[in-house]
Amino acid sequence: ETVNGGATTVVVDPANGLTLDSEDGELEITVTNTFELGKLRLYKDVTGAGQEAGMTEGNVYKFDIVCSFNGKADAFKKSVEIVDDGSGQMYTDIEGIPVGAECTVTETDNGGADETPAPEIRVIVDKDTTVIFCLENVFSAGTVELAKVLTGDAKDDPFVLDLEFEVQVTCEVEVNDVRGVVYSDKHVIKGGHGIGHGQFEVE
Questions:
Q1: Which of 18, 97, 130, 195 is most buried, most CB within 10 Å of its CB?
Q2: Averaged over 34-58, what is the pLDDT?
Q3: CA angle centred on 116, ends 114 and 119, rounded to 5°
């Protein structure tokens, strides 16, 4: 068989062919094409200070999977979602992909990460091998600087400088069109002093 349609295996029976002994004889040759299915596993790695601070849990990451096979660009198509469970690494399995197909996994929603990872391309090699894809999202964190400035004629007097002021610090981030609070706490600061706090997610 010179063109097998993308079959995983081709078996000709008998393998060595037949010889026609007479003009009236009949020959029977069977050609069996087997098309097997494989699968891929898509890992979503989430790293960075934002993840370590627990700010990514509940994020939804969306992907398109498109596989070309036997000349057809979109022989297999599927859209999937992975929900961030806070562990830093999640995965999902996609089955029913023709063996020999070339698959491209593209992230279409990064859940608010710093950047969207580049698409990955792999070939489904056989029915027994799970082909691994891994796309990483990094969530950085910055620093909020808070300073209490005093003014007036008594701003340098010791009794003023010893005063303590309570400040509410609230940070919000928008993910998937939903704005949520990722940090909220009260801090005490003295006049003329400054404090810095890390672990704030950078949008």
A1: 97
A2: 91
A3: 155
Burial tier of 5 (Cβ tally within 10 Å: 0-12, 13-18, 19+): exposed
Instruction: Tell me the one-letter amino acid at 111.
Output: G
Q: Output the six-digit token pair for 151.
A: 């003014």
Q: What region does 54 belong to: left with phi over 0, alpha with psi -120 to 50, or beta?
A: left
Q: What does the block give as tokens for 121?
A: 């391309």
CA–CA separation, 38 vs 97, rounded Å?
5
**Of residues 40 and 164, which shows the higher confidence score?**
40
Name the pLDDT band for 69 (thresholds 50, 70, 90).
very high
* Nearest residue to 137 via CA among 114, 118, 120, 121: 114
pLDDT digits (tens, 9 = 90+) for 72-130: 999 999 999 999 999 999 999 999 999 999 999 999 999 989 999 999 999 999 999 99
Burial class of residue 107 (count of CB atoms within 10 Å of its CB; 0-12, 13-18, 19+): buried
Average pLDDT over residues 26-45: 89
Long-range residue pairs from 162-166, CB within 8 A, at least 24 positions apart, any chain: 162/190, 163/190, 163/191, 164/188, 164/189, 164/190, 165/189, 165/190, 165/191
Residue 95, number of CB atoms within 10 A of its CB: 11
